[in-house]
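Pasting two entries for a bug report.
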Amino acid sequence: MHRNREIATTADGTPRYRAQYSKKTKRWRPVALLKPKAYSYIPDLLVQIFQTRRSVPGRVDQRIVRSAEDPRNIAANIAIIPRPTVQQLLSEHKSRFTTE
């Protein structure tokens, strides 16, 4: 459903990239941004969730507290080195798939 999306482009048609940190190589690398996903299945999923929720006691809008050990509370990223600019990453990047 969300696979095989095209690469997102800017207004002038150039591909968009972001920086991603690799735990294995301990380096930053550029990754192409993809076009936004289409969530056409969400209305059906919401209907199924609320039908299931009707049988469970309690309120539908009750909040769940995140624990202190939740990984989302630790850090923005795991990089050891500071993040370089995307332009710098693109200039240094060598792809296995292109031959120049």
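Entry 2 (this is the one that rendered wrong in the viewer):
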Amino acid sequence: MLERWTAGDHARRISAANWSETMQKIAFHGGDADRQGTLLTVLGVTVEPLTRDDAMRAAKLYPATRPAGLSLGDRCCLALAGRLQAPALTADQAWSGLDVGAEVRLLR
């Protein structure tokens, strides 16, 4: 399963905003964020900067994503996917069917 979802260079990229959110959630649930961050890096995950253009794109996505309850972090993910012209991977069904200018792939 991991190979399926990490095939290709784009599948292993995450925005700095989403990396921060992920590490915060790991720590909140009692995990070792430093250790898990190192593991993700070893697995080839790279952290992409959130650019000014990404931030503007995320802001502009608000009206289209508000009804589905997407967060700022969700919109940052979609903005990065749009910039990289890569699919955004999520397990959140609320993302499906949204017109966000990026392909969305559901993990489950």
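Dev reply: Rendering is fixed now. As a check, the viewer should reflect this: The chain has one domain: 12-106.
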